[in-house]
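Please produce the structure of this protein holding N-oxalylglycine.
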Amino acid sequence: MLPSYFALNLEQQLSKITEHGFCVMDNFITNTTAMALSNEINLLYETANMHEAGTGQALISINKHLRGDSIYWLDEADASIAQQVYFGQMEALRLGLNQHLYLGLCSLESHLALYPIGAGYKKHIDRFKSANNSQKIDTAIRQISCILYLNQDWLEADGGHLRLYINALEATAESPAKAALAINISPLSGRLVMFLSDTFYHEVLPAIRDRKSLTGWFLTR
Ligand code: OGA
Ligand code: MN
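Below is the modeled complex.
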């Protein structure tokens, strides 16, 4: 039996994220769309359009030891059919999240990602709590991280799990063990994982196959 955070419909998922700060949604897109997006990554890679991702607050330094993926930022104005399907689904999600969480999410930034065999992304957080807009009024802030996986026929033994540290908030000096409480989520085709960007540390474990995903962040201003 799958644990409850693998529940099915959107309303249930939205209540999960309200309650726990994260959720896992299977079949967020159809297999056809997932395969189309996966093929787009292959083509972008073969034509040298995927670029090595950076790390750190400004994402300018490339450190393969910390992060080994190559990415391609999407432009909604120039979206393929499969990307339009994705943007449509994400818009429905944004509206649902705004109804449930009152975050006032106003936009989305998304990139395709390819982790070659053996590549991962060391434990990190997508937004530091201190990164607010007190200094720059115009800064977009990442509120919710959403990772959609595009890997057909992925096996548990292939690795490439997203390790999500789910008790980050409860860890204290008295019970540091809670800081290590984590779940491993397999990057199965069509699966979407969502979590609060400033709350959950996470990492990408290396895989024995190329690992593909489409990562999006809902933003506020
Ligand atoms: C990221 C990230 C996780 C994943 O791109 O910031 O943490 O499972 N991705 O791909
Ligand atoms: Mn991340």
